[in-house]
Amino acid sequence: MSALLELQTLARSFGAVTAVNGVSLAVERCERRALIGPNGAGKTTVFNLITGQLAPSAGRIVFEGQSLTDLAPHAIARRGVSRSFQRTNVFPRLTVLENLRLAAAANERGSYDLFRSIRHLAAPLAKARDVAAAVGLADRMDDPAVRLSYGEQRQLEVGIALATSPKLLLLDEPTAGMSPEETQRMTQLLATLPRDVTLLIIEHDMDVVFSLADRITVLHYGEVLTEGAPDAVRADPRVYEVYLGTGDEP
User: Fold this and answer.
1) Which residues on adjacent β-strands are paired with residue 63?
2) For residue 237, which phi and psi values (nearest 5 degrees)?
3) Cα(93)–Cα(147) distance, rounded to whole angstroms?
4) 103 or 86, which is more confident?
């Protein structure tokens, strides 16, 4: 069986600067893959290429055996690719339930006024309630998102991504800016996500990476430095050299 996601010699340049330089990797179905590297390694650019926010300068992106390379972001999302961002990306004045319900209704076919019609759609409402429970927000469903703590807003953002029923979930720094307690809660949340959702995660906290990832790909100057199981990556002296004196990407 082919990989769920394949990047084939993917490249992206910005003028004279090459941010991603011939990256090839394959993410298997149900895998939890971490993408790590120092500042400027090209990690977020890779995410932007996968989701169609940027067009590649060269190479291909293949998802479920079909090319995503020339598709618009909304078309890629329709294929089953969902993403969270480094900064919270929620509707602050809508309730938790409304945020999740809108996301759950996003894949509904047909022509209608989304805000008016979703009140009458039982399936998105049921999905929203299930996701709220899954991300630990069942008791906050009636609260506007603006009233949530920062950590809870990050939980909601993961919930919004899950509510679209993705096959592949891209998480960009899900614990960025969190306290140790919030990071622990988020790590536990991600660890309990259903395995039928494949995860590709960018994360600066190595404790989170090594506790969640089945495999780790290390980027450096836009190229794959190494990849493998967590223990192999942890033992690779090149990984320590890359991080030595630079810290992880925030």
Assistant:
1) 5, 66
2) -65, -25
3) 9
4) 103
Prediction pTM value: 0.87
- Residue 124: both structure tokens together: 């998105």
Structure tokens at 178: 């969190």
Cβ proximity of 22 and 234 under 8 Å = no
Coil vs helix vs strand at 187: helix
3-state secondary structure of 118: helix
Q: What burial class does residue 74 get, using C-beta atoms within 10 Å of its C-beta: 0-12 exposed, 13-18 middle, 19+ buried?
A: exposed
The answer to whether 165 touches 195, Cβ cutoff 8 Å, is no
Residues 6 or more apart whose CB falls under 8 angstroms from that of 108 comprise 121, 124
Maximum CA extent, the chain: 57
Q: In 68-197, at which residue ranges do the beta strands (DSSP E only) sit?
A: 81-84, 168-172
First to last CA, the chain: 36
Name the CATH superfamily housing domain 1-80+197-250. P-loop containing nucleotide triphosphate hydrolases (3.40.50.300)
Measured at the CA of 167, the angle between CA 37 and CA 104, to 5 degrees, comes to 115
- Please answer whether residues 209 and 199 qualify as being in contact, where contact means their C-beta atoms are separated by less than 8 angstroms: no
Please give the pLDDT value at position 123.
Answer: 85
What is the Cα–Cα distance from 113 to 138, expressed in whole angstroms? 27
Query: Cβ atoms within 10 A of the Cβ of 179, count?
Result: 12
Q: Residue 50: how many CB atoms within 10 A of its CB? A: 23
